[in-house]
Fold these 3 entries.
Entry 1:
Amino acid sequence: MPPTEDHVVPLDRLTRTDVGLAGGKAACLGELVRGGFPVPPGFVVTTAAYRQPDLSRYDVTEGRTAGETTGGGGTTTAGEAVRTAIIEAPVPEDVAEAVRTAYRDLGGGPVAVRSSATTEDLPEAAFAGQLDTFLNVIGEQSLLDAVRRCWASLWTARAIDYRDSRGIDHGRARIAVVVQRMVRAEFAGVAFTSDPVTGDRHTMIIDANPGLGEAVVSGLVTAEHIVVDTRRSRVAGRSAGRGEVVVRPRAEGGTERVAERPVEAALPTPAVWRLVRIGRDVERHFGRPQDIEWAWAEGTAYVLQTRPVTALPGQPAEPGRVQRMMDAMLREVVPVRPYPIDMTAWASPLVGLVEKTVRATGITVQPLDRMFVEEGGVVARLELTWPRLNRHALSAPVRLVRGARRYDPGRWRSDPMVDAMQRHAHELRARDIGGASWPELVALLQEGPRIAAAGIELRLRYIPRTALALGGLYVTLTVLRRRRLMGALLSGVDTFTTDANHALEDLAAIIRADPGLSATFADHTPDELLAALRPSAPSFLADFHTFLDHYGHRDTTTPLLITQPAWRDRPEVILGILKGLAAQPPPPAGPHPGEQAEQELFGHPLLRRAPAPLRTAVRTLLRQARWFQQVRDDTRFLLVLPLPTMRQALLEMGRRLVAAGVLDTDQDIFHLRLNELDFAGTWPPEPERRADLRERATRRKAKRAELAGTPLVPTHPVSEPSGDVVLRGTPGSAGLADGPVRVIHGTEEFANLRNGDVLVATYTSPAWTPLFRRAAAVVVDTGGVVSHAAIVAREYGIPAVMATVHATARLTDGQRVRVDGDDGVVRLLPGADAG
């Protein structure tokens, strides 16, 4: 056992090299103290004091406790068991006594207790917001309780997922705890020494709010936003905060949130310039741009935390309107940075097929390596340039018309290729992945794109006629001055996605009709539900697994990435959707927007008086144009059929490479390319090959972590809001709707949406479609008028505003807003609270 004094170390004894002893956060703070920066005094409960439970009892990697059969709940179930074990176990007496002594030496009283993991606040893994902090902790026993809970936060679902996503071994993760004298902040917030969005090294961003900094870092408020031009030493921009809530310490310990806006709600000018000076000095000390948490109290600025801002983007030239729209769409199509295996096993063949298909229409698009620009073997950015005409351009219209005459999109589902794709995918899924040889696993990965090739061919066959019909309908509506009806007129077509939605509603109806099932869903989190349902609802589980058999291959993020889990991989996502659907009856069905738009169209004076053949021609045009959405959505549904099986094969290969000592985790295989895995010979691979694979995976993994702060596609600032307008974007679906904000960051939060909420998200995919029936409106950071969110919003007749850039950052749960889908703006309603 380490000596007692190693359990607790004063901050001023630490430097930036002491990450293994004190974690990233504490090591940075110790470096600041030794550098003479204003840091509140304190000490660190070191990693030597952290006693990790026996992880052999908790199979976190596989997502189950020892002895439990594989099933839902996954990593979260095991993580929760570890957390419970840590929280319920007393702090060892030698550690407790060292903590009590250090607390008394600090003077007792209120302290801030912050987690400091060995994987936190590093250039390659910021870990921001993943671990717990406890403010205004008073008393020795409360301090020990807070220390235990900080240790336990290493095993929350979000922390486990974060480590998984970066290939960090759970067994090697360690945690320290920082204890500092509490600063009774008059103002607090964050400061970026370089603009994290544009990458401008001569711009400092300061966000501030009265009270403690939790309100800012947790996104509870619209903070005061100050932009400082450090080259000219002037404030280049300043927007007032809304002060929706103030977090302040309570006399008995802990904090409280109050909605009472202080009389003086703006950060004093002396504080601004003091923070600028401190920010410059901290950046100079660490040699790179910094993200600093600060507090201002009694005329003094304190540094509470600093971490590096990794891989800032360069400053792009001011884009035009079309480029902004293209970039917004790209951010929706590829919201997650592809791994090398994504590019080589799936995206490259898929994009290659699309490129070949498009070239036949007379258009040449940029090659894949110029679209996905790599640095160090990792995709660094996504660049899309204008296509150009090729030698097939003159003959393309003839081929387009010929194909349109040959293939009727109204009968496309009966094409034999549809059955062949489904049969081929079913055969892949039936393979014995665990018993397959290495060459058989490689061959399976190579078969997946062949199924996708059939989906591309289906689009090539059936899109031409519906595309011509779309053009004809657009011209017709332009002549009749009814172009605004276009989106609504195209809605109302059944797709595989709407079939999945109906199946979900049927399952939700079963839950609502059964009191026992309703109670089970109400009393358990989505991660707990599968285990809770096994003994009590076998019939419902059979129906649930039938749903997964039909629709479980749906991608939760984008169809371009093989590494992202599908519904079948994360059944808790679907259970979360069902929990939300079953919690309240479905909203009453109103008139379909497509039917209303059609009545308005044919009620137009020119069409009302037109001869019958002309009216019939317009109806035929409308019917054929409507098939576009079905062909587009359903072929995407079919394209991703092989993805879960391919991902399962990849992870099996990863496990074998871990056993051979090549990789640290099975997901490290994502950093390798398919051709690098296609090796012949005996198993395991030869030592030279093993060493080469390990070096490649390690190098690319580090590069990917370095690029974590760099956006794939540039984020172009939109015009600043004014008056009651809090956001501006692109109109996606017409209409006006009021409602409370509900920010949904991912599929794991689907259960949080309630009837009448305004759905706010970074992007959406078909996996999100069940939420639209409940939402009053949709506001999205990315996308455009033809993106998924806009199309589905028009289908359901709810307003949508796209490409807002900052919606998920500026809006908070509970705020009441008005979404104007006609003008593309979001207004904050008078008296709206943060909730």
Entry 2:
Amino acid sequence: MTKIINSIAFFIIIGTSLLYGQKKILNAKSITSRISIDGKILEGEWDSAETAADFVMYQPDNGKPISVNKKSEVKVIYDNDAVYIAAKLFDENPSQIKKEITNRDVFGVSDYFAVFINGFNDGQQDFRFYVTAAGVQLDCIATEDTKDFSWDAIWDSKAVITNDGWIVEMKIPYAAIRFSNSDKQVWGINFLRNIQRDVQVYSWNRIDTKIGAELTQNGLLEGIENIKTPTRLFFIPYASFYYQKDQFQSDKTFKGGVDIKYGINDAFTLDAILVPDFGQTKFDNAILNLEPFEQKLDENRPFFTEGTELFSKGNLFYSRRIGGYPSSDPALKENEKITDFPSTVDLLNAIKISGRTKKGLGIGFLNAVTEKTYATIKDTVTNAERKEVIEPLANYNIFVLDQRFNQNSSVTFINTNTIRNGSFRDANVSGLLFDLNTKENAYSLNGDFKYSKVNTVDDYDGFKTALNFEKTSGKIRYELSGKYISENYDVNDLGLIYYTNYYNPYANVSYRILNPTSVFNTFKILQEANLEIQNTTGKIQEDYLKTTIGASTFKNNYYEFSLVLTPKGTFDFYEPREVGRYVYVPKRISSLFTFELNKNHAFTVGLQSFFVKYDEENRLNYGVFINPKYRFSNQFSLEYALDYSVKKNDRGRVDSDDLGIVFAERNREILQNTLVGKFAISNRMSLNLDVRYYWSYADNHEFFTLQDDGYLTPNPGYNLNKNRNFNSWNLDLSYSWWFAPGSEMILLYRNYALEETNQIEKSLSNNFSDVFNSNLTNIISLSIRYYIDYNVVKNKF
């Protein structure tokens, strides 16, 4: 009897394993009648459609079947305009379904249902559409490395809470996705259900967490045949009005323009912006930047965030270069000073074309033109003014070819080019990338070779190459990599790079649990070793051993601790800000602790603290970030963040004198306060508050001269005031209304101010008063964007 039971158990296990290893198949049903997206699923067409069921847990207990009380049933039908998805999500306690109302593309504390669609079934990119129990839409383009929620598609959905759980109905037009022009479509597809109160996620086709690649584990959607998709042509005209006032002047501005989206075919799309307006994009977080590098700024302009995954290949595209800071400074004569220096360059127009053939070849082209920009210069003796070009008419373009194969591998060629009119700097960068994975997605080999050429008075070129080998599956995973960057490698005309002229071996090994234990829901330990050696001198510029332990408990609180050892002193080749010079940085030890409270609670908090101790008397860094949030209701929440750090006896360059490069030993404090508030009137209408106050100072108390060997000697004769005190204030209060699909009205009140001096003020209240007593700028703006579908207009006329 025991042998029989063991045999049955064996065959059940084998059968289950085979089932999990197979891709589930769902057939879509063709329809001709109209479907109403109302969350009721009353049309008869749904009755005869196939059902996708038998969901299994994705996280945390991977592979566990969903309970009968929470069974999920999904159906798919289609016509020549769109695919339609209906999901019945059963729940024995509908009153406990989490349903916080948030802004678009924000999950919040809410249950959600999602569909992942890969129109080429190549296992490398999904179009993902989410609907929360509160009816909020989210969408993104997903690869194995990124999830781009800045991408927004136009689609329809409805969520309704019922006595048995909740229902989701979705209409996803073909214009929102990409697929081949084959008569018979075979798409990769998966459905996801998040049950927020249990912090559990289920999928229709099992996503095995032992396998590192998630996108290759979609099921299959078949049955879509001989569709005749409509013309994909959309216009998004806009009109904006701005009223701006500060202490000295006021002005009114009216702007108008149009965005155009055109589907060249079912796989390729052209996007164009004519007379762009980015006046209501989120403000940049101004800081006191004492580092040798420029501040990296977030991209908030939709054109440069939506659907740019092809152009991001190889990290050669930093979109803030387009319309960013001017590329040159004016040459000043005796008795001249600059009276007006624009901090940005106006964008005249931009287009991008992207898509993929049915054989997996992705093609992308982006082109942007920026305006000639002048600085105003005044002669302080004669008061005569003149203008000088600081940025000529400039053209930026990117060309990408990305060939996918074997459903998990790719080879990519990318070229970026910057051409400035006249005798200004031009640049060209090319890159060849590859990412090869075994059939089982257990191992990966990836790398690149990139070549840069810059045309200036002194032409120069350089290259970068890297090779990485990874084990990407199982409980134990590891990575071995090497990188070499030559001295003149420079991608900063259209990309962003800080460090060059070094080679870098790197290795890591990690262990993780794949299913919950009696102690943890999740657990991971990672050990890293990194070494960077400067090519010219052979000196170490980076060296560390890092151990990271992260775990979440059964109460879904998350803890993480990192310890970093730099056992030898390193050399900084950038802080001196002169080619060939470097400064010694002592050996050090640092730690980082992170804690996040379960986000299901009305009150939740995140905490992060760090500590760095240098092998140098009284030199240390420490700081804390604390982020409490209170959810008063499903509509109203407030979130505050305090970010405070101290650098005691920090050292950095401040000047040069007859003795050479001058360094200062200084104490620094950095304080940033942010407040974010949201009141959702509905899932299409909300009031939003975003406030930021930043204060930082650098108090120099001892000066040194940098020696040729990288060490510092006292410079008691230097007595110039190089102290810095910096304040920044930003406030955005906005009303947003999505009054139609793809159409939005935003009413925004904004005020901001900057205040900077070399007189240290250590009183927080005085600093706060000073920034408000500076030139506070107030702006009121109204912007309306309206989405026009060519097919709708054509049918009406």
Entry 3:
Amino acid sequence: MSKATTDLPAALLALEQNLPNVRVPGAHDKIYKDECVYSFDSPESETGLYICLNTFLGFGRQHVEKHYAKTENAVYLHLKRTKKPIAQSKHDIEGNQLPKRLAIGLEGGFDTREPKFEYDEVWSIVVLPDFLSIPLPYELLPTKIATAVSAIQTFDSARKLEEMTPWDGEQRLASRYAYELMQLENGVRIAPAGWKCENCDLTANLWMNLTDGRVFCGRKNFDGSGGNNHAIDHYNATKYPLAVKLGTITPTGGDVYSYPEDDMVLDPLLADHLAHFGVNIQQMEKTEKNMAEMEVDLNQKYDEWSLIQESDSKLVPLYGPGFTGMINLGNSCYMNSVMQVLFILPDFKEQGLETSSVEGIRPYMFKSLVGKDHPEFGTKRQQDAEEFFRHLMTMIERCDRSGPSATDAFQYKVEERTQCGQSGKVRYTTRGDCVWSVMIPTEAAMNKHELAAYEERKKTALAKGEKADSVDLVRPVISFNSCIQNFASVEDIDDFYSSAVRGKTRATKSTRFVTFPDYLLIQLKKFTVGPDWVPKKLDVSVDMPLTLDIGFLRAYGRKPDEELLPEDDEVPPTPVVRIDESMVQQLMEAGFSKEGCQRAVFHTASSGVETAMNWIMEHMLDEDFNTPFQIPGAKKEVQVSEENIENIMTMGFTREQSIRALENTDNDITRAIDWIFSHADDDVEPAPAAAVPNANGNKPPVPDHNCRDGPGAYRLRAFISHMGTSTACGHYVCHILKDDKWVIYNDEKVALSEKPPKDLGYLYLYERVGN
């Protein structure tokens, strides 16, 4: 590559010749001056950043020539920035307090700012292809160039504009019950202090119902702390919707919870609602932690956070190829962890460099690209790493339509065998996946005696008025073999419609692998719903093996003596069942999807909310639980748009695929494309003549051509751990095995791991051993 040369006469002449292609940025132009749009080069990189004075896109040195060759835009504003740390004052150090709220970059929240630095910036005009340079400032610049340069230097960058609206975990919506809240004229008056639960002796974590003014304790936490659930019991008995947490009320508001909306909410009329019971909001002072502060405390629980981040170890920092960290862009650690695990490189270079001098990349452009138009990943909210991995796989598949996809290494097929208990006939179905989601059988804990002793110590501590977390934590220890056995076990189905007997009967279902992928990503299902319908995270230790052999889970296909169940078109029409929409709405208020709630009400014949909720508890992990629901046997007429058909066909799909997809997605083009990818194999049926019996006399299922296959023997290469109480908050960290040494990636911090906590992971990446 040629170097920029300072030849003022030649540079000014070239600049004059290319002046027609220069634009002055307007109010609606986005200026990419923080990072190269094709790489992670930035103004702080060795060669700086080149900003096109026509498109205002930023480029690193290796991409600016490609942009010039493609567009013939020759004039660029070059920025080279050098960062120098400034020693922090005593005041700054003392002011570095623990977070008090679930906020990113806001007062009292998680401070994502780097230590204070000063910057040396060097600006220049560079004209390609000879990289002729004009150092700035330069008084004889053409007016158009000077105006464009000034605008680029002073306008906010595209990245900064995007970040102007910070994410704040405390942001809440106004409750729909607030404006028409019923308040009883019962003479209740609430004192400004000295509160106590009406049903027990608790004097903390108290909630006053805003309809009748009665005071009860809050929910019990997963660790035994909190209340005794008396406030929720009162709601279940009365259905009075809103309650405020006493001790959090200040002149600016307080913590208000809506039971039917199942969320923290805003009550715009809180002052009036409190005054009804004699509470003057202007005289109230905060005496307890609010819910956001309690969530922060739970998320920073010493044991889990310190173990996963290896806080008690003096870790040796690493840098170089394969050891570059990714700076957290406001709760993007779910993205960082997935991308770092996927970027597995073979080389290993241990370096003794100070952490403060190691630079991580800022994946602004990548985050914007993968989150574009997505309702969740396009936001700054914390997301689930497993869901992000699936989203990324879908995006890659869409771009690899012309040939083999990079996602093929993760794709596999499973076979589900269902056998009618009355007729003995069977049905085989296959489906594709890229993540093996495994349930954790907590009842199979190997340390039940220690757990019982721990619960007894915790109960004793609570009886003495001590906190539950004062007792050393003991987690259930589960062998991954128990998880595999749970997956391999035969599932009983009590409500199975058999096309052979034309009625409901019992059946059994088993699942096996048709193919084994090159890379097997395992998700431990740690997030579940408790018996009180409250989402929770299982705090368990799973003994994950370094080597794994699941070859015995291979599917053998249909046996020669097995008779298949009749096809669906031979089944008589399903009796009409009315779906009670009011029940669907009540179930949705508990936090479940509309599709899942419709399924529950349909399959329980609208017999009641409690019955439907029990159905949800049993089926919420089904593959189709959240997919669009249509009553079985009911044909829904959909008018398909010819324009939508043509738009989908331009992406390489057939007309028949396009029509079927639109018919199954209410003519929604975006959902239709996703439907095609998730039903790509619906029409692929293994031909009986092509299935050659194996040694057992069975006809094995025919693997899909997009799924690689091989032995089911694997070794652990990486794992991602989650810290926190739910996927909506907390932090992700990943560990990767490189040259038989574990490396920890904690956003931009990369170091040699001393005690990799492989028993506390959430996602595990296994690599196939052998061919």
